[in-house]
Amino acid sequence: MTQDELKQAVAEAAVEHILPLLEEDTIVGVGTGSTANKFIDELAKHKHLFDGTVASSEASAERLKGHGIPVYDLNSVSSIRVYVDGADESNDQLHLIKGGGAALTREKIVAACSEEFVCIADESKLVKVLGDFPLPVEVIPMSRSYVARELVKLGGDPVYREGVVTDNGCHILDVYNLEIVDPVTLENQINSIVGVVTNGLFAARPANVLLLGTQSGVKTIK
Ligand code: ABF
Predict the structure, then answer these.
(1) CB 193 within 8 A of CB 150
(2) Alpha carbons 128 and 208: distance in angstroms, whole number
(3) Residues 6+ apart with CB under 8 A from 113
(4) Model-level pTM?
(5) Which one in 47, 139, 170, 189 has a CA-CA gap of 20 to 30 Å to 104?
């Protein structure tokens, strides 16, 4: 199977996984990226089974609305039953690196509000140690150089993602050459740098389930 077919397989598996959770008042959190897009297209086939969604990006909101699926402001819903999203890397503890699509802050907020976080990915995303994928850090624009200097002190090589402005009007630094052996500690350390909005480590709140597309079928890792 191609990588695209693996993503399609996990998107379909994610819908199967959440079907028992869908009721007329259920809110589904929906992520961002090419795997999440396939999930949105599959979810649309069941749009009459649940109330609506909260989206982690403007792009996903537009795709959902295009299917006629309601998209709510997070402040107008009391809970999200399940959140489905992709990742750039996962270890076997389901600690993730996310944010390659620059939607990390909204993704982290939606994850925090969700009872269950289902991560969907093809097998190329599962790694032993996080950090081959450069860690995205969203920063307040005026703090960018200061935060970059602090990230160097933590052992990383930050690179400004030029031309990208997030949905929150902020900038992204991609931090190369981190070998992340303690994701929870590093997530907290980076969050403590003044000017950082969020970093792409999802370790304090990892995924609950990883649906991994492999050549021998979709594996469920908990
Ligand atoms: C989002 O989309 C991100 O957090 C991650 O950066 C990316 C994964 O994209 P894809 O599914 O296209 O590989 O989930």
Answers:
(1) yes
(2) 18
(3) 29, 54, 74, 79, 80, 83
(4) 0.94
(5) 47
Cα-to-centroid distance, 95 and ligand 1 (Å): 14
Q: What's the token pair of residue 177? A: 């050459």
**Residue 5 catalytic?**
no
Q: How far apart are the first and last CA of the chain?
A: 24
- pLDDT single digits (tens) 77-129: 999 999 999 999 999 999 999 999 999 999 999 999 999 999 999 999 999 99
ipTM: 0.96
Ligand 1 neighbours by CB, cut-off 6 Å: 31-36, 85-88, 98-101, 107
| Residue 104 structure tokens | 């990390």
Q: Measured from the CA of 136, which atom of ligand 1 is nearest? A: 6
Q: One-letter amino acid identity for 155?
A: G
